[in-house]
Amino acid sequence: MTPVAFHKNKALAMMLRHHQVPTETERKAHVANGSVHSLAQSLREVRWENLAKRMGRLP
Questions:
Q1: C-alpha span between 9 and 25 (Å, rounded)
Q2: What angle do CA 12, 58, 32 make, to 5 degrees?
């Protein structure tokens, strides 16, 4: 079953906050043109010790 596009795009846009994409307009553009997928990372390579600090930067 594939996700409803509206909900998938909303989730992707929310995720972009964690990738230093500051404005909603920019996030929507990344989702619309598909460049959001270029930000994917291997979870093994994520610096988990900095996660709490990064999460504190949520808008």
A1: 13
A2: 25
pTM above 0.70, yes or no: no
Give the mean pLDDT of 4-8.
89
The contacts of residue 6 (CB under 8 Å, 6+ apart) are: none
| CA pair distance 9, 38, nearest whole angstrom | 15
List pLDDT tens digits, range 46-55.
777 777 777 7
Q: Which amino acid belongs to residue 4?
A: V
Pull the structure tokens for residue 53. 């600090």
DSSP 20: T
CA-CA-CA-CA dihedral for 4, 32, 59, 46, to nearest 10? 80
